[in-house]
């Protein structure tokens, strides 16, 4: 049974992770390079994960180009006063990251006090174990951290709130998420256009 780290130990884990983290631009370049060279992040260098890395690179490219943050949200985010890290745990093959990370990045771009940093789950097992979802190493996982105190102010992930409800209902009926459901979930992301995630982020930042 895993035990939670002490508050001080958690702060040290976070500081170490941030020191080894990437910017969003660096992560995108990494994913593109891996996709171009039939590679993937993580310990499981499977053909499936390589294929997901290629697919995610394409999806993130589309989201990076097309995602628009509403002016109302831009003003709300710009007014946020705290200096925070948004530390995201993910991997290049993670399908749920592809539609979410570009939205998170677009929001962070509108406030100089928000420093978006990204780490790979495979390289930060202790940090991941401190932020499990239902005892699982689900990603992406966003951790909001006060830059001055290293205090954790909130977490999000791995899915937007409405998508989480859809996934939970499906699991109740079928036990696990099928490939067909995951494909339908990507269609949901495309139809939602990041609006549910934007709502989640506003709540995390106490903007509404």
Shape: globular
Largest sheet: 4 strands, mixed
Radius of gyration: 17 Å
So, the CATH homologous superfamily? Glutaredoxin
Q: Can you list the strand order of the major beta sheet? A: 2-1-3-4
* Structural class label: alpha+beta
Helical amount: 40-55%
How many separate domains?
1
The rounded distance between the terminal residues' Cα atoms is 37 Å
CATH topology: Glutaredoxin
**Tally of strands:** 4
How would you portray this structure in words?
By secondary structure, the chain is an alpha+beta fold. The protein has one domain: 3-Layer(aba) Sandwich (Glutaredoxin). It contains 9 helices and 4 strands. Strands 2-1-3-4 form a 4-stranded mixed beta sheet, sandwiched between helices. Helix 2 (24-36) crosses helix 3 (47-66) and helix 3 packs parallel to helix 5 (97-108). The N and C termini lie far apart (37 Å).
